[in-house]
Amino acid sequence: MASSVKIRTKRNQGITEIRILIAHPMETGRRSETPESALIPAHYIQTLIVKHNDEVIANTLTGASISKNPYFAFTLQGGEIGDKITVSWQDNLGNMDIGERLIS
Amino acid sequence: MKNTRRNFIKKTLLISAATWLVPKLSWAADLFSATSLEKTLSTLTGDKTIESSDKIKFIRLPTIAENGAVVPITITTTLTAVETIAIIVAKNPIPLAAQFTLSPKLLPKVSARLKMAKTSEVIALVKADNQYYMTKQTVKVTIGGCGG
Question: In this predicted complex, what is the ipTM?
């Protein structure tokens, strides 16, 4: 199965912009499809870790106030072609996924 | 592979090894259970004082959001020794949206997309050099983002 994590990088004048898009419903647990139907159970990403090669560069805690299919962007100082960016997430139901991309 | 006990144990070990390789970060349930702005801020800072600072900027954050389900935000700061940046939507049921702990290798700049239930102040709380700083901006929401 394809990873739920898409990563794009852009090197520019000594910095590398890292953009992350994750396919995830981010349900708050307060929403229902129609006013009469039952609430959709909460289902949202809680932690997101970004690594540059083997070093953690960002630890993120998230709540359900982050939009569906979350987007995050960070800016790394430096970053060489071929360096690996790894992003992993875990949600409140214990699901997790990892995506990686080499800086180009 | 035959479905023997030995194979079962082998498989179990492989799966647990794979789980081990995923870096772990524990979520802070207390931060995300606070339902008021005051409680969120005091839990985040441990009741420290927060200074308003014009050194924190919203590079991108609309003043009017037509769709509260997707409100783009980019925060940056000229403060030095930044440790964490938190994004708080004052009037959401759970105000804290995200808390970023950044390595010194990252510029103090983060982007995300927020859900906003209704018109509210959006607050950026920055911890830099063991001090807390914040800035805020009101975002007017014309359609709520929580399906209410």
Answer: 0.94
Which residues of chain B have a CB within 8 Å of the CB of A32? 147
Q: For chain B, which residues score pLDDT lower than 70?
A: 1-3, 11, 13-24, 144-148
Q: Which of B98, B105, B111 sits opposite A57 (nearest CB)?
A: B105
Contacts of B143 in chain A (CB under 8 A): none
Q: What are phi and psi of A85, to 5 degrees?
A: -105, 125
Spatial CA neighbour of B72 closest among B42, B25, B114, B44? B114
Three-state DSSP class for residue B56: strand
As a whole number of Å, the CA-based R_g of chain B is: 20
Give the per-residue pLDDT at A33: 85
CB A15 within 8 A of CB A4: no
Report CB contact under 8 Å: A47, B103.
no
Verdict on whether the full-model pTM lies above 0.95: no
